[in-house]
# Entry
Amino acid sequence: MNLKRRHWRDRLMLGVLSAATVLVLIPLFIVIVYVVVQGIGALNGDFFTKELGSPARAQMGQETGLVHTILGTMVVDLLALLLAVPLGIGAGIMLSEYPDHRLNPLLRLLNDTLNGMPAILKGLLAFALIVKPMGTFSGFAGAVALAFVMLPIIARTTESALMIIPWSIREAGLALGLPRWRVVLSTIIPTARVGLMTGILIAFARAAGEAAPLLFTSFGNNYLPSHWSGWLLGPVDTLPQRLYSLAISPYKQWHEMGWAAGIILLSMVIVAFVIGRLAWSGSRVAKR
Amino acid sequence: MPAANPAISAAVRRIPPPIYRWLGDRIFLAGVVLFGLSVMALAVSLALVLYREGAAAITTFGFFGFLKGTTWDPALRLEFGALPFLIGTLVTSIAALALSFPPAIAVAIFSAEYAPRWLAHIIDGLVDLIAAVPSVVVGIWGIFVFAPWMRETFYMPAYLWAADRHPDLLPLLGSPIGYGMTTAVIVLALMIIPFTAALSRDAIRLVPKEQREAALALGATRWEVIRMAVLPYARSGIIAGAILSFGRAIGETMAVAMLIGNKNTLPFNLFGAAATMPSVIVNEFREAVENLHLSSLMAIGFYLFLISLLVNLFAAYLQRKMAVSGGRAV
# Structure
């Protein structure tokens, strides 16, 4: 093979690789553009203030919206964070601050296993553990299912965020006579703040888009609950699960609302993702 | 040494009694270990609970008999066999992996080897963003845009051509409704590209600089450096990434359930409807009334757990062999 041909081949491969990169990224933009274009028409005042009701409401042109879905998503997602964040950070602290603990290899293995499990299985688990004994689908069960999704991600990102902090900082704290737990709580956690937030945001972005676990736990609801306890103890609507129901429904008006729900869901996830990513790269640059 | 700093001596005087550090450390460690234990308990209970809930179906049809059964009849005979879904899951996942592997590797190489740092940053961000797009959003796009487009552009012409020239091919192609195996595979491939790409990119970036410099010093062109010095070195990392993506494909639920057409009987064909293990759970779980039906769906979940476990453990084994430290939650 002569030199000319080798150079020609070099340039050909560069062309192929850049073309493939563009090809991979195109669908992302197509999906985003379609969701925005198709859904923007349904994003009006009613969308944010009215409940969905029966399909007849949409077909007869009466006012319908997804206010119960948006509120339900907030309740379920926040409760899931409340459940998953302390547990996940605690497990992450165990992995990074007690590296010699005998249980750590097993914890890491089981945590990664849990992380690799399809979200739908975590929905089935929450169904068996919460919905069956309670006898009803509930927002609480949905939050537990999403917490199962978030937990292993938070544990893993906490571990990496704490591992970046140099050991010398811990040693400095210990040399000052601080007990180990004060070193962790007063120096390591505040220093790793940005990394921890990033992990939480990534976990949130992953869990907020999951519909499968919610279908068997919070189930869905076309109306606002009649009593405030219904947010936790009764079936609750959430954006991904509602988007699925709207998309597979036979009503044209509901399809449009489905696209609009897609806009909200997509922007929620993208905002969490972008903030998390910027904070992460920012904290890394600062440390270099 | 200068005179004692008053602040320090004040702090020294305020040193708490030893019981404070002894007890504090014990309590803190106990709390942290308790959190760790609950994560472990969760992983173990996932397996145990799925088995317990699916036990009725597994004992009725046998551990392997359930997997080998081809009939899925929740209405009349109440006979349940998971083979169609097992085959559907394996075929769609393997096909999606094969389809997504070349472009994913190409993106990884371009970002890690060719792109300047600012461009690599943008590409990495966008590729990771693909992974962040919720499955249902991809699904609604697939239902209303992609599947109809595939039907008009590829399935119908191919079907009409086959009907005209090679009628013997028709059973292989299946009905060109748009919602079926091929559509699901393409969308699935798109969704797992970011996982293969991100892990391969990391593996490529870990290749030592000397490796590249040695090849360059021998007069290799840039592509030859990649082919001869970089890719072989990063091979096990790339393969581990591909296997993890395969695990993702197995568990991918919503987009597949919305696009695969949901047909519970074998044989599957190229364009026609099919089903996977997650898709049948999503579609039937909420409507299952018979206890055995519910238990069979749980049993499918249990087998899905086993398959995911095998795939993940294998990938972890490969990654350990490669000895890359640090946790990456993709």
